[in-house]
Amino acid sequence: MEAECVVADDAEELFDASETFKKSALLSSREQYAALYKNSVDDPDGFWSHTASQFFWKSKWEESKAHTENLDVRKGEIRVEWFKGGCTNICYNAVDRHVEAGRGDDVALLWEANDPGFDMKLTYKELLDRVCQLSNYLLAVGIKKGDTVAIYMPMLLELPIAMLACARIGAVHSVVFAGFSAESLAQRILDCKPKVLLTTSGVKRGPKLIKLKEIVDDALNRCVQEGGYSVDYCLTYDNKLAIKREDTPWKEKRDVWWQDVVPNYPTDCPVEWVDAEDPLFLLYTSGSTGKPKGVLHTTGGYMVYTATTFKHAFDYHDGDVYWCTADCGWITGHSYVTYGPLLNKATVLIFEGVPNYPDAGRCWEIVDKYHVTIFYTAPTAIRALMRSGDEPVKRHSRKSLRVLGSVGEPINPSAWRWYFEVVGDSRCPIADTWWQTETGGFMITPLPGCWPLKPGSATLPFFGVQPAVVDENGKELDGECTGFLCMKASWPGIFRSLYGDHARYETTYFAPFKGFYFSGDGCRRDKDGYYWLTGRVDDVINVSGHRIGTAEVESALVAHPLAAEAAVVGIDHEVKGQGIYAFVTLNEGVEYTADLKSSLISTVRCQIGAFAAPDAIHWAPGLPKTRSGKIMRRILRKIASKQLDDLGDISTLADPGVVAQLIEFTDK
Ligand code: WTA
């Protein structure tokens, strides 16, 4: 692991919210925050019990004991429980509760299609009806509490509906991002063995048609061949705007058209009351070894945490129209498209398309069309839009915008400033939210209105979050410092395990620094206590905000019949944040050609998905290894970024000669 200190170009520049903003903000001073924060860490049980009581619980947990935890591997098994013994249902709290409070006619979901001109909306009452029908279908095909349901869908309204329908009946959803390949989908299905898969015939993303059902059929065949496993049903939404039914591959009995069956079910369905610690969902994420990890979240703590973080980080008010550009296939879409906002009764915009189609003004056209007040996106999207200049932004009014958000990777100060000045007309605070699939919700984030922002810093910890910056020996550092970002205590949204592999949960997150949860990120804390995240310190690359394990890309590359070995490192990329740079050793006697480079790249697309395709392939007659056979990525990173006079000590290599060879192969 290597920590690095990235100093912002002008770290001391402060941006404070306007007096008008502060006047109506939920919280508007650092003192107010400090008092609440102190209470949240001095008395976590009291603080979170009070917060949780805003939701509906069929029965309560024991108030004085809202949680129990052990985060110290030296003291035995790692275990976290919040609100154990409390009985609730997150779908009930996100949907029924609002309808029962007389707000059924308020708009829950707005949908904007990939192609301008097509849209839809659902009120909370209509959403409830749709969710119930799907829950009834799932019950009818034999899904019970605790069963897993896989969902492989693009951003249609049916995606959040599917998540809520599972939650309603206590089923565990496992959403797989619809940009993953057949191989990746198969791997995830084989890990969690869902009885039912929910999917779509196809989808348009920008100008491209993606035939999702073809990918699904390929994946399901692989599951049979590689693992002897088949799903009982594949419920397929007929996405008429993208592809015709007759052009969709079909397997009778297993495949069922959604629209043919689901609307026939009743629009009421009883809620399954579950324990706060019953599982809500699995979401696979990349780690530093090849096999994706099934991050397991439970119900009660996740519910309370996502709702509370949403409300405060975005200063949510009744009537806000909220748009998060993330896909529900990632954690951001789970916590901040579906659950967090709906638990607050927000109006949520779901966008099927991409930010620059048909042109770079699309986002702002949508903002004006729906009067979006809170807009949440990733630095990579901001940088891509920034390249098209200010005109596509300024062409639209954007006067409805009140709060902006950023997530996925550190935002560079110049992108921050463009976002603030051009998109937000220097009027909207930016919530740069640092968090992870594992944390469930925001951990370090500005609370707009409470304290001045510094471009590039995620600022201060949320209520109940106790960060520790540690050195390589696991010693907690004080004051201004640089090191590894850990957490000292649990918070309600923390994941409880890795599906089927509690030992890996412990060794990955709790063993590196004993007594702490380790995030895998490096960070710096400045004199004002602000946190500056500096990126991953493990073998994970963050490409356009997507986490990709170097080992996953390497194993995809060596699946190519002509590749003998591969080593992958991240390099700086102007738009994506990081790009993927792959060193590949070919089998003896194979010729180096441009065609072979393309073929290697398409192998990765097929094995993982297009978003993981390497940006560059560098031929490697040999790889720099230590005498014990460990690849020295530090050297590869320097070669990839052409810092050739700064290679460091290469004398410990088994064969220092490979370095000169590699340099010779640059640009070949
Ligand atoms: C990175 C996405 C800096 C970080 C929610 C983390 C960030 C990883 C930020 C988690 C941010 C996310 N500033 N870095 N605001 N947000 N990251 O699991 O490296 O897809 O560990 O969750 O993204 O990625 P994940």
Automatic annotation (TrEMBL):
One of its GO terms (molecular function) is AMP binding. It comes from the Eukaryota. It holds the Pfam family AMP-binding. The keyword Ribosomal protein does not apply. Keywords: ATP-binding, Ligase, Nucleotide-binding. Residues 101-490 form the AMP-dependent synthetase/ligase domain. Residues 552-630 form the AMP-binding enzyme C-terminal domain. Its EC number is 6.2.1.1. One of its GO terms (biological process) is acetyl-CoA biosynthetic process. InterPro entries: Ac_CoA_lig (IPR011904), ACAS_N (IPR032387), AMP-bd_C (IPR025110), AMP-bd_C_sf (IPR045851), AMP-binding_CS (IPR020845), AMP-dep_synth/lig_dom (IPR000873), ANL_N_sf (IPR042099). SUPFAM superfamilies: Acetyl-CoA synthetase-like. This is Acetyl-coenzyme A synthetase. It catalyses: acetate + ATP + CoA = acetyl-CoA + AMP + diphosphate. The keyword Methyltransferase does not apply. Belongs to the ATP-dependent AMP-binding enzyme family. CDD domains: ACS (cd05966). Residues 33-94 form the Acetyl-coenzyme A synthetase N-terminal domain.
